[in-house]
Amino acid sequence: MKVLRFVAFLALTASMVAAEWPQAAGPNGNFVVEGRALSAFSVARGEGVVWRADLPSTGQGTPVVSRGRVFVTSHEPTTGDAQTGSGILGLCFDARTGKELWRRKIGATRTTDLSSLFSDNTAASPVADGERVVFVNVGGTVKCFDYEGKELWSHSWTPFGRHHARAHEPILHDGKVILMHAPRYDLPVSATTKEGSKSLGRGREYWTHLRAFDLKSGKPVWRAEAGTSVHSTSILGKFSGGSSAILTGRGGGHKPPEEPYGLSLVDVANGKSLWDRAIGGYPAAQNATWSGERAHFFAGGDHHSLAVGTGKPIDSVSVTEGASITRWKEKAYETVENGKLTKAKKPITYFTNVVVGNYHYFRSFGGFFIGRVNLKSGKVEYLQVPVQVIRKAGGEEEVLWEKSLPNDMKNAKGHRATRDKRNEGSGWGHVSSAPPVVVGDLIYFPTMVGMVYVLKWKAPRLDADALVSLGDLGPAGKTWSLSGLACANGRLYARTLKELICLGRDED
Fold it and tell me: Rounded to the nearest 5°, which phi and psi values hold at 86?
């Protein structure tokens, strides 16, 4: 393979649309924005890096950018390896320089493993509306501050069961912050373990729901009628008439109590269900998304579409048979039409799909493939990508296709973040991954080991010509991230276990 080089940057235009990134899903709530950003970068080599800032400890939430400031969460500082904790920090940085401006503590009642694949207290990203920033400790506290760090309001609860998974992000809409909320206020802490959830029951009183809070006052506005699995990524969208709704799911592993498994469309104005659709065995972690008048999701090895207006099924297509598959064969890519991928237990990686234009992009469980479904024709395409690139001194590179290097899982202070051995893997074929982000003509796919695959999403074929670059967020084996990318004013913002990173050009 002729290794992709990192010498050309895209020119950034003055007419940048994505000036801010107020929430994890971006200004439009769907991980898609107009504009342009770097097409190639390497933090391991210092290419495209504007600044880097050490973080106090580990964390998972995506950075958000507003009015020249970057907000991000972190666990409180640790003093040793594989600690647990309940408190997190809300951090504010200067977006142009990376200087830390202030930090605030957000405590909670629920202790978790730091950098856990499940229920990490920093899993929820902040939201910022230009005047206020809201930090969520999913261990049981939400706090709102002004941009100088003055606390405006706070709200607390006792989390229940597996109270949060990486991909469920707070939503900012119409003067409200909408987040996933524990079901009860009167549960003793001893009853909030995953074991406790089984004995306490599966009735509606134990469901997890979306909960809306007024940004100015912090007062609760509504609780959704539909239950939301902790594994679901709730997606904000708009009907052609302009009204908004949230698509959310129930189901997945570890037997969430919200039943029946399936999808709901929630009215963002009042939390009422516009419709509920039961889908047998639906894995809510393979998040549904919607664009236009259709909702799209994966289940049972197939891609499905529903009518957003009614929730009724429209069509489906296999994502494992009859696909165009471009694989790496020793020294070059080869494409096979009408090919077949081995049907994995789970056909796509959790949380890692997005709709843009006429395509639904996703990452596959069955090998290291990025895939897409043409929503008009039903054609399915796959492109194999390296699992990791090791960038060595002198510009040499080693490309790994089958297995990544073991990750040291260390934070900026050199402490190992977690005892969970699953964190040492590539992030492919596991439940924890960051969402892809679309900026203009490019789609960015980050992975747990700090790789970022950059592709032209409009490419006529999903083959080698569609792959623009193989970016990285740091040295192989020493970089770990479950955070999505943010884009504001042409710069990309990323976080790892160790640091907050700004990618762009000095003059931008």
Answer: -120, -30
